[in-house]
Amino acid sequence: MQVSIVKLSKVKEASKLFRFDAEYFQPKYLITEGLIQKSKYSELRGLISVLTDYHANGNYKILRDNVELKSEKDYAHMIRTVDIERDNFENDVICINEHAYNFLEKTKVYGGEIIINKIGNAGKVYLIPPIERATSLGMNQFMIRANESINNYYLFCYLSGKYGQNQLSQRITGAVPLSIDKESTRSVFVPLFSDNIQKLVSKAIKDHFKSSDKSKKLYKQAQNILLSELNLTNWQPKHQLTFIKNYSDTEQAKRIDAEYYQPKYDKIINAIKNYSGGWDILDNLVSIKKSIEVGSSEYLDQGVPFIRVSNISPFEMSEEKYISESLYNELTPQENNIKFEQSKNYQPKQDEILFSKDGSPGIAYYLKEQPSKMIPSGGILRLKSKNDKVNNEYLTLVLNSVLTQEQVKRDVGGSIILHWRPDQVKETVIPILSEEKQIEIQEKITESFTLRNQSKHLLECAKQAVEMAIEQNEKTALNWLKKQVDFSE
């Protein structure tokens, strides 16, 4: 049992945020406050020029009358948490017209803003990368702009790191859904270190974005090679209100909903099936194995990672939920001469592809190296190559591309809870590019992921340096950061 002894004056101070609950005074939160208050600090309210959100005026009728969300491309993009999480601001985005963009004047996003989730995964912090098109803030987010008294990149680094997250987590209400309000956000304590450490942390974060940008450009080049081969370089899916299909088509597909027969899906399928190099279905290229659902009652705060759909992207895998070592051992028995599809061992292996089928179906992540202990959830399939017709980097790119995404939309269209059945997954059509083109794509993806890892390293070093300054002192943090990161450029 954890016990916190708190002065009445501190309880009165917290009451300004309407917090009297024991959760607010957890030992880890009190320790965080104590560490920050050892040195110069300020509340966030004194360090920002803007803290706003999509519903800042609170008048929902006026919003509905002036803002229409569209799935087709329009004047501006409305940035959502999912776009930032996927690091994808081009595909499957929500758009608004020019009138809506200008109506939402206070929530225009230009790049460099700090974003904080206010609902759901409340308190999670992002920094908007450089963007090239008109963009507006999405729903359920706060946008922060720092004033001249603090470096914006340093502020992001602190808020997204251990102690900033403790401060934000302390202020999240226990209501469903979990949320954090503006006043609570403004009350977060921020350590004010010297310009020296703020500038070096800022440089590391900027270099993080430079590497990330180079990585994305290389990945985009790999995508363009694929689409160019199929003459789909500039193709954009268009929803048609009217079209004609034969009754025999409905009998063959066993679907009568109009969405399934949208001509845009035919365009993709025909481009693949008419490709000169040939094509095949996924079932002929890989063995497919279902993963397992352990149930939320088995979730722990630490242990062996339990990987859910929300934890995978085309570029990385995160951890959020965990299971016990004993349960992991039950799910990974020793086996001999068991076919991949029939195995009861749920630990993924090197050279497999994790592929989502539920929630956000159609996300593929390639395990190029032997993964650490983990168990994927039931919403994730494991794919293992059957032959050498396609290499794994190339296949992963195809699975994450518009080619597969449109097939997913066709198959799951109309469902409230998106679920892509394994039998549908098996029928996904895959173009078979020449070995030369596949290797070209593979090389660009490999270089892209090297840069992405470099980018991630820079971000983690910057966060750790800030934590070290809080826990120890600035000099120790600066010396450590200089050893970890090359600042010579």
* Backbone shape: globular
- Which regions have little confidence, pLDDT < 50, spanning 5+ residues? none
Provide the spatial order of strands within the biggest beta sheet: 2-9-6-7
Number of strands: 19
Annotated CATH topology of the largest domain? Adenine-n6-DNA-methyltransferase TaqI, Chain A, domain 2
CATH superfamily of the largest domain: DNA methylase specificity domains
- Number of helical segments? 18
Instruction: Tell me the name of the CATH class of the largest domain.
Output: Alpha Beta
Can you tell me the number of structural domains? 2
What distance lies between the first and last C-alpha atoms, to the nearest angstrom? 51 Å
Protein architecture, described:
The structure is a single chain. The protein is built from 18 helices and 19 strands. By secondary structure, it is α+β, with helices and mostly antiparallel strands. It has two domains: 8-192, Adenine-n6-DNA-methyltransferase TaqI, Chain A, domain 2, CATH 3.90.220; 231-274 and 278-432, Alpha-Beta Complex (Adenine-n6-DNA-methyltransferase TaqI, Chain A, domain 2). The protein has a four-stranded antiparallel β-sheet, with helices on one face. It has a four-stranded mixed β-sheet with strand order 4-3-8-5. Strands 12-18-15-16 form a four-stranded antiparallel β-sheet. The protein is globular.
